[in-house]
Amino acid sequence: MSEKIVYTTAAVNTGARAGESHSPDRSYEVNIDVPKEMGGKGEGTNPEQLFAMGYSACYHAALDHYKKEENIDNASQVTLTVHLHKDPSDGGFKLSVEIEVGIKDMPEEKVQKLAEKAHTYCPYSKATMGNIEVDVKAVPFVEGK
After folding, report:
1. How confident is the model at residue 57 (pLDDT cuts 50, 70, 90)?
2. Chain center to CA of 79
3. Number of domains in the chain
4. What pTM, to 2 d.p., does this model score?
5. Residues 54 and 113 in one domain
6. d(CA 82, CA 54)
7. What is the model's pLDDT at position 145?
8. Comparing C-alpha atoms, which of 100, 101, 98, 58 is closest to residue 82?
9. Are 52 and 35 in contact (CB under 8 A)?
10. pLDDT digit string (tens) for 88-114?
């Protein structure tokens, strides 16, 4: 890759879906566990939750980029839902994502346009494009959500 690298990070996992993950400097550590819905104890977070948190934060930063570009300072919220599906092609699993975007006091048509622009800009969206199903839609802003 010829582009300039601006940041690099890593994560270490032991125990797979029933273990522990941490940053190499141990500034972030989290217990990983299989969700109850999949037969686990559900006593920790799981890879899908971590993916949803990272993707939602990254996507919201992309949305803020376009809000700033258009001089919009209304509050916004991004709810990103990750679905884990059975993959009939190999018996494993695959992901899909729903991104719901609300911007306070803004018509949903305008929110939808900004949401779609953010989707083309966000690094997570670029990484998933063409690889998993991602649905981006405007929703009403809910105070305190």
Report:
1. very high
2. 8
3. 2
4. 0.93
5. yes
6. 11
7. 74
8. 98
9. no
10. 999 999 999 999 999 999 999 999 999
Q: Which of 27, 45, 63 is the last residue of a domain?
A: 45
DSSP of 26-68: SSSEEEB---GGGTS---SB-HHHHHHHHHHHHHHHHHHHHHH
Q: What three-state secondary structure class fits 113?
A: helix
CA-based max dimension of the chain: 48
Both 16 and 40 in one domain: the answer is yes
* CATH code of 13's domain: 2.20.25.10
Whether the pLDDT of residue 1 is over 70: the answer is no
Domain that holds residue 2: 1-45
Distance CA 125, CA 85 (A): 19
Count each helix (H run) and each strand (E run) in the chain, helices first.
3, 6
